[in-house]
């Protein structure tokens, strides 16, 4: 007699970023049932968000649907929602759906790969002036600000005012920060006549 799906070891994966995606992928041949829970219907390829922010790529090009990624998987169920609590004793997660409905999803093994978010170290008001670059909304917000600044600089006749419009501060010199700085400079060279924009790196303090 073959093993019924309900008798299989149940693995719940929370999050469809790189960690959750690869965890679910590694279980493709295992004799388990996998439930992948994510707050969006897509996997976000964060390393390319800077290209969305600078108009090179559209948002759809960095956000393939999760169901499309796992379309051939028979032992995996994709569910939309946010995990709001974990019942460790009862071995279940509480999931809130976009419409507000809540449900319990039981597990035998739990993989938490919910990702991270930027910290403003208690100064959350900074987010209004210094948006992060962690999701599509952030990238589109930055795109709007960057191109607005270019347009305003193009209209400006006063050199000092034009310089202010073309001054961008990027906090963080990891791959995303460096790529974003270089791409903004390249955009300025292409879009603005007489631009000599060059990234400048400074250490704090």
From TrEMBL:
FAD/NAD(P)-binding domain sequence ranges: 10-190
Listed GO MF terms: NADH dehydrogenase (quinone) (non-electrogenic) activity
Keywords recorded for this protein, A-Z: FAD, Flavoprotein, NAD, Oxidoreductase
Top EC class for this record: oxidoreductase
EC number, as in UniProt: 1.6.5.9
Keyword Transmembrane helix recorded: no
Family assignment from sequence similarity: Belongs to the NADH dehydrogenase family.
Protein name per UniProt: NADH:ubiquinone reductase (non-electrogenic)
Provenance organism: Phytohabitans flavus
Record lineage: Bacteria, Bacillati, Actinomycetota, Actinomycetes, Micromonosporales
